Amino acid sequence: xxxxxxxxxxxxxxxxxxxxxxxxxxxxxxxxxxxxxxxxxxxxxxxxxxxxxxxxxxxxxxxxxxxxxxxxxxxxxxxxxxxxxxxxxxxxxxxxxxxxxxxxxxxxxxxxxxxxxxxxxxxxxxxxxxxxxxx
Length: 135
Known about the structure:
Number of helices: 5
Number of strands: 0
Largest sheet: none
Structural class: mainly alpha
Strand content: under 5%
């Protein structure tokens, strides 16, 4: 059985009014954000390295576009920003590994290696290249 005294009903009306005002506020803020903040779609694929974030990928596209147009100086400025972002990202990842176990360290190393290349075939290929060079 609900307690339908006037004080409880008044408190419920007050709570509903606050909830309504809050919802209106959030809707207004979201509409302003949608109007004033541009949206850029960036797709990260499974082959993209871990340090390629959506920001880095969009900057890479912008840099490539500028280089194709011949605006090399501006493209080089963006390349410096990209390098800074990548180095910051990688240093943050390495900071997390300072107290890691050997399994976690090897998992981090294996993410940066190409799984399609085996170490044995790579060494044989390198030895053949060295032999060819000195012959």
